[in-house]
What we know:
CATH 2.40.50.140, five-stranded antiparallel beta sheet, about 10% helix, mainly beta, 3 helices, about 150 residues
Amino acid sequence: QVGAPLEIYEKPQNLFVASFIGSLPINLIPVQVIADGDNFIADAGHFKVALPISRRAECASIVGRKAVLGMRPERVEICRDGGAEHADAFEAVVDFVEMIGAESNLYLKAGAQELALKTSSHDAVKAGQKMKLYFPPEMLHLFDAETEKALF
């Protein structure tokens, strides 16, 4: 893929590019896309994530097939209200906290799925802590698991 660094980072054309760019690797989660009325959901087993309404055509093209959901670590949101604000917030347990100056990298598990996120070091987060996470739909990436090409 050729392009400006930010464009490549924000719009990778395939799984290789998505995983290659970024100082903390993108979260890549095996999912199955399911239809839920007019909406689409990425089912990761232990948790489900609503896919963007603006991407219905792309989601419809992969319903029932294996896909890979991508979410950049700095785009993952910690639900400070316990998840009440977002219906598809899911629980994860902090495995390890890596403090890097003003930021901290959190390594978590949601079921068997390992995840990473970036947050402020001012957040008092400790290993073993449970928290609710949210993936904003418009920040998601979705890849066809077979071809490894980006759908969005």
